[in-house]
Amino acid sequence: MFRIRLLGLVTAIAFLLGVNLVFVSVQNFDKRDDRVKLSNLEVELGAKRSAMQEMESWLKEMTLELSSSSFKVQTLQSKIATFDQDHPGGLPAYLQEEYAEAVEQHNQNSN
Which among 4, 54, 67, 99 would be 20 to 30 A from 85, CA to CA? Predict the structure, then answer.
């Protein structure tokens, strides 16, 4: 009878150890799976961060270009207005080419 109880106790201990080993291995698998997921997310975030940095750079370039273009348009508007104010009766022949170029550049930069 003692042997049967001892065998039952040994079986119960072995079962509990087996369950514990399975639980630990499942936990380890979950940790590995989580590490893989985390690594994949880090790669994805790195790619998105890089794309965002490229977009920020592009936006800065576009802002500078627009500012430059806006400044050119304002300068040309001032130049044209000065021609008109200085010569209300019409432009002299020697200024007509310069005036036409200013108007053309203004129109090109306005679009």
Answer: 67
Nearest CA-CA partner of 105 in 61, 63, 85, 75: 75
At 77 the pLDDT is 93
On whether the CB atoms of residues 103 and 77 are closer than 8 A, the answer is no
Spatial CB neighbours of 109, under 8 Å, sequence gap ≥ 6: 69, 72, 73, 76
- pTM of this structure: 0.49
What is the rounded CA–CA span in Å between residue 98 and residue 81? Answer: 13
Closest alpha carbon to 99 in 70, 69, 85, 79: 79
